[in-house]
């Protein structure tokens, strides 16, 4: 069969040649080897039959059955083919790649260029023409294949000259050629005008303006690269994520990737609030309230009260006036309007900014979840992933030792996860073992649900006690009682659930993590449900003459800050102190493992608090961003120093999808329901905020529509849009139906792709069987011809030996 082309230049090169200028006569060896290669390839067709015959002799005689019939060939009988079969296989296009003379010339050119770059090449100006080596001695110009290659090159150059510069560059990038060949084609395809523009000025010097322009471009380019490298250095996940993935695996890495996603969500939520709400109100501050403002004591950072009540941090600071002209707040509580202008309506801006921010977050969440589903549940099977990881995972652009060591760790950890996943699939349990596991699982679930109900009842009873005690706003320390109780329960419940989960003895760590996530999620959502009822159902009635929106915002701020403090305490005592006790006292080298379920649920809990409080504390996303950045550095440091890799490695292929899904449906959906109820049903405070004179926050839109109707016919389309797209419920149902239809279509597309892939695999299998069938038929035809030829030869010999047979 056709062998792969081995191009070796027999150019003698000695160590003493380095540093000396080689003579042009030394290149004769190169051209001799090239001429020899051409001749060998020209004789390939003549020698092919001999090579096939030698392979047939080496394969031996075909096997036969007891009846004398030849055994049909299978896929494993690759070497038992006849001469005719081997000749047909050698003529296949896949076996003749690289045998054209154009490919030989290209390989020769590349090798000689690499060889000449090793040493300094002498100039041939001082060498006579007779001494210069040339390919004309070997009659290469008379080769029709070479002439055909040259004609194709000229046609390609002409085609490139007819294109624009952008199209030419795009076409050259797509060509499978070397950089030197692409550079030559680009230079040859330049038009004379383009070459004239690219030439330097007189005496080889550019004009002053050109040099100044080039210097400015280079300076701006360097400045841009410096700023880009600085921004990359400020990212907390630039190098740490690769290090974490290589040392601890994809399971622990999924937590930090989820934290990175939450940072992006909070930044996207904060930008419109800063642009259209906080910044505008800070530029046009409302009149100061009578009385002296409290001074800053430092306790406000923990409680959120005190001097923070009179800042843009809370809902009560924002006015219900227009902000494009000075307005003194009248006794009736609302400024007048001008009929001939459309001012910046602060109540409307507050409502629409929060609504649009939530809508953008919803769209981003759905898009992120769909992308995560597409990456995690890819169409097709995972067969051969071990070989792909071993042979195709290395990035050959890595040159630094630190980066190469990190990539080695990543590949090794990924292989451990793949092998562990494969071993777990091969260990089924008996019927008694499964029954015992189901019984233990049911018992553990009953205990976990009982713990959740007990903690929820405790939070409800303590919140009622706080209402009855009527703590005043001056006692800021007492306001921390309910958040402290909630954070203590959130800290202790995951440890109890972990101890109960140890009784289950799950074989799969993935299932163990999923069960822990479900139990912690149920617990935290139940606590948050009781708190939402406490704020909107109980506190609104007890704080009738006060700004209850500020109180709810302060409660959410306190919960966010105390949650961060308890995360630090959990990291300190749960990881650092336990490692020290294990190493110093217990004399164990085992470090604690990173609790993925508990830490992920802490992130989801904190993000839910942010979404619940964005209506009452517009700057709460900024607090959440600072909190997430600090948690990233704290968790990363504690992970590297105090934790070890999971004892049972497992592949977290779907963890990011599960995290984003939990963030979307229980967390974001619950926060959206809470805020919609507050906007449509709860009466705002009459003493503070932009909705102080309205029955509900939603009435701000109706008031705005009435102002637009009185403003004139120029904006009459805006009331129509509000009436038919905002107040009407049909667009909401329509958008929901379209969303469900898109999800259904995506599911059907994925199913169709899987079915097509199965059909293609079956077709590939059938193609292989067809090839085996054709080879068997060819082999049988050849055997019949061979037997008939042998029979005729034997008959002729018999007739020659026995003349009487005529």
UniProtKB/TrEMBL annotation:
Gene Ontology terms, MF aspect: mechanosensitive monoatomic ion channel activity
Primary location group: membrane
Organism: Enhydra lutris kenyoni (northern sea otter)
Gene: LOC111160323
One Pfam family hit: TMC
TMC domain segment(s): 547-653
Keywords carried by this UniProt record: Membrane, Transmembrane, Transmembrane helix
Regions that span the bilayer: 218-241, 262-284, 348-368, 438-460, 480-501, 513-536, 657-680, 730-747
Superkingdom of this protein's organism: Eukaryota
Membrane topology: Multi-pass membrane protein
Name this polypeptide is given: Transmembrane channel-like protein
Family listed: Belongs to the TMC family.
Stretches for region Disordered: 1-31, 45-71
Gene Ontology CC entries for this record: plasma membrane
